[in-house]
Structures
1.
Amino acid sequence: DQQVKQNSPSLSVQEGRISILNCDYTNSMFDYFLWYKKYPAEGPTFLISISSIKDKNEDGRFTVFLNKSAKHLSLHIVPSQPGDSAVYFCAASAWTGTASKLTFGTGTRLQVTL
Amino acid sequence: DVKVTQSSRYLVKRTGEKVFLECVQDMDHENMFWYRQDPGLGLRLIYFSYDVKMKEKGDIPEGYSVSREKKERFSLILESASTNQTSMYLCASSRDRATTGQYFGPGTRLTVT
């Protein structure tokens, strides 16, 4: 049962354009949503997060939008740069009573072309 | 600078061997996690620990155990390695209720032959 889904395994965008990565979830108990970026042979690095009580969070070129009624979030990267080429994981956080546990999507490979 | 280190980047073991993967964090984080990453499956949580000597099963704990004797160190143990445990293993740590999520180590690529 995949609680967090990234339906696009890959995305190719030209440098300077907008990249939009999408993520859907099923569990209403998630209280935070996060995006991670992963380069080959490295661990994922935190990019941006959003609380379930917000609908938008912005950090420089990165903006995350949350639509709770649709259980959908998206990451916008504007403008896209070649260094943004990586695998992006969406993750959702839920408190277990002892720790915040993350559930990850399967990832979207972003390729930013010149 | 925040740091999570894993004992090996690459490891090759034989079926049936007992395998230890070590993870150390220097951020005094309460929580530590072990994941495996497989193509098309994303990151899946194996076990996590919220305090020294405390642990909880994640989504795929079968065939694994963990140990946390000190706050900074979290070990993943494959009791009897099997070929279906060939994977990338990622360790992470976090503070309680961290809104910036978890900090990850570089990963250990384990091959079981």
2.
Amino acid sequence: ETGVTQTPRHLVMGMTNKKSLKCEQHLGHNAMYWYKQSAKKPLELMFVYNFKEQTENNSVPSRFSPECPNSSHLFLHLHTLQPEDSALYLCASSQVAETTYEQYFGPGTRLTVT
Amino acid sequence: GQNIDQPTEMTATEGAIVQINCTYQTSGFNGLFWYQQHAGEAPTFLSYNVLDGLEEKGRFSSFLSRSKGYSYLLLKELQMKDSASYLCAVRDSNYQLIWGAGTKLIIKP
């Protein structure tokens, strides 16, 4: 595997379900990010981890819970979501956060909340 | 507030040239990025500008004017595979990335 991978690619869940999204980067980077991408809207940064420490939480509702066990893996735990949470969830990584390094993105998980 | 503006959609012809504009108002500036995103795929890095002027990379070029808060991405010799969304993003003074909503480019034969 190369680059940034995400699983699953598609997920349909009910509002009472609990699920997790997984991201793995094979680039030796130290920073990882979760973004939400909705149609015709800018990418919304949700969480940032730098050297496994969470450095950013952009007022994300508590029904989204991130976990970063090491610099290569990032999870997003989901519970009691709302239909408006349906979107493409993108994971990204970079050498270090809060620098000029570009970010490398995974293909995303298309989430539908019913 | 911080804001990035770019056209929602553009159409161009195969073999032609197209310019996608991006204007920004941010708290400070630490570089501007362009990404390409094909439908259903990951955004991929195209270019980075931090100084004024033109950066050329094959068929793609990116221009920056910091005094005007303005950038453009120039695509030459358009190919059908260039049909994608193009995202403009600016790093502010805190090195946070501020994203535009993207420009969907449609290439017609």
3.
Amino acid sequence: NAGVTQTPKFRVLKTGQSMTLLCAQDMNHEYMYWYRQDPGMGLRLIHYSVGEGTTAKGEVPDGYNVSRLKKQNFLLGLESAAPSQTSVYFCASREQGALHGGYTFGSGTRLTVV
Amino acid sequence: KNEVEQSPQNLTAQEGEFITINCSYSVGISALHWLQQHPGGGIVSLFMLSSGKKKHGRLIATINIQEKHSSLHITASHPRDSAVYICAVRSGGSNYKLTFGKGTLLTVNP
């Protein structure tokens, strides 16, 4: 089925460990986004990409890095995990210029840092 | 102050009731989105609005650009409508970034 696939769905890390979250979309969308969702807060933008090979910082980029080497994949990296990065992470994609404006979200990755 | 405010934060209804969730925003926008998130689940896009009104099944979304306000209505509510409903706005610019409200938790009891 077409859509946005996030892997893994769940992960527990120890403080200081590193990991990479993968977001893959098969809709040929130009725009991709990484958000985090925390209790009592709206989704917040970590990093985004407007096309292959380009990335930009969002509201809360500290402690994260991203790469978009291929159009269909957007990777989110945590170099040295901290308990404050315990969250649910969502990836989303959007077609450039689409008037109907639909965003497609992945099913989320629940990350716990202990 | 959050740029996007939703009310109420929590809403409990009986099956069959008419539901209204409100969203107010403080910045100029090019579009407003309503999203649905079931407990423990992913996020689904329901509507994108830049003016007027849209309807899909039992869901109706309206927006008043001058008053910076949007409403999401659910007619003949059903327990399967129980979810968090999220309002998000897109400001001008070419990167299509969204700013999200905190969400409204709707519980529909049978």
